Amino acid sequence: MTNYMNQPRPIVMSFSGNDPTGGAGLQADIEAASSMGARIAPVVTALTVQDTQNVKYFSATDAKMVVEQARVILEDMPVSAFKIGMVGSIENINAIHTILHDYHDIPVIVDPIISAGGGMSLASEEMALAYSDLIFPLTNLVTPNSNEVRLLAPEADSLDACAQELMDDGCEYVLLTGTHESTEQVINSFYGHHKKIESTCWKRLPNSYHGSGCTLTSAIAGLVACGQSIPDAVSIAQEYAWQSLVDGYQSGMGQFHPDRLSWTKNWTESNRDVITNSSPIKKSNQTEN
């Protein structure tokens, strides 16, 4: 009889930066993918100095180190999906392109991070062009917000046209998120096969969140690694990401953090006593004679 409890979780290799607040970057990827039943193999592309208000500065990882981090894992462990977040430099885009080209049968989910939540630029115009030339032709799904997609498709005259341009660049699907638009509700639009497939509306929440894009994209990548189709993964991950924002909290003086593990709260509260009582370390009140 197969012991499914001991089966390894599917692996998502995430190329992203480290956020010391834990709100975005690799920490967000780990929590979101784990919540979907996968696990992250983290490839560090940048170190950031940031708080909950903004990124102060960052340092990109050397491109050779990015490649070596990825290859040593790919040669040792089965990776079921790639997730790309903050890349740090154009050299790292070239490095990641090399990996994706060599492992072209693994699905690629891209969160094209252009700027931090506080506004600091994290990618140059040259890097935006490199996305189009090197990453998007190998991408199954890209998840820009409306500000990012306008920078990635500057010649397009509407958000629909921006999404079409990304598909022209080679992206199979586009999930365009509408948090930054001045609409009453947040409208996310999903595109594929050079047409809009559907739009979903979400209640606009009163706070600003740090790591919402990482949460959504990594949840999708985790679901894809577990065998979900991209359309199904997009649908499920939006529900999960929105709930993590509803349950979000303010840990500093700036943006709120999504609570990506809010689904564990009931379990933790109801099982705390069970965990404590089942500890292998037993206390005894007996005294030796």
What can you tell me about this protein's structure?
With 289 residues, this protein is an alpha/beta fold. It has one domain: Ribokinase (UDP-N-acetylmuramoyl-L-alanine:D-glutamate ligase), CATH 3.40.1190. 38% of the residues lie in helices and 19% in strands. It has helices at 25-35, 63-74, 90-102, 125-135, 146-152, 159-169, 212-225, 230-246, 265-277, and strands spanning 11-18, 39-50, 55-60, 79-84, 108-110, 141-142, 173-176, 186-192, 195-202. It has a nine-stranded mixed β-sheet with strand order 3-2-1-4-5-6-7-8-9, with helices on both faces. A hairpin with a 4-residue loop joins strand 2 (39-50) and strand 3.
Secondary structure: elements and pairs:
Elements: E1 11-18, H1 25-35, E2 39-50, E3 55-60, H2 63-74, E4 79-84, H3 90-102, E5 108-110, H4 125-135, E6 141-142, H5 146-152, H6 159-169, E7 173-176, E8 186-192, E9 195-202, H7 212-225, H8 230-246, H9 265-277
Parallel strand pairs: 1-2, 1-4, 4-5, 5-6, 6-7
Antiparallel strand pairs: 2-3, 7-8, 8-9
How does CATH name the architecture?
A: 3-Layer(aba) Sandwich
Rg of Cα set: 20 Å
Please provide the ordered H/E string of secondary-structure elements. Answer: EHEEHEHEHEHHEEEHHH
Number of helices: 9
- For the record, give the distance between the C-alpha atoms at the N and C termini, rounded to a whole number: 49 Å
Please state the average pLDDT score.
88
Percent of residues in helices: 25-40%
Which strand order do you get reading across the main beta sheet? 3-2-1-4-5-6-7-8-9
Low-confidence stretches: 278-289
Classification by helices and strands:
alpha/beta
CATH topology: UDP-N-acetylmuramoyl-L-alanine:D-glutamate ligase
Query: Which CATH C-level class is it?
Result: Alpha Beta
What is the CATH homologous superfamily assignment? Ribokinase
What global shape is seen? Answer: globular
The tally of strands reads 9
Structural domains: how many: 1
Report the sheet-strand fraction.
15-25%
Largest sheet: 9 strands, mixed
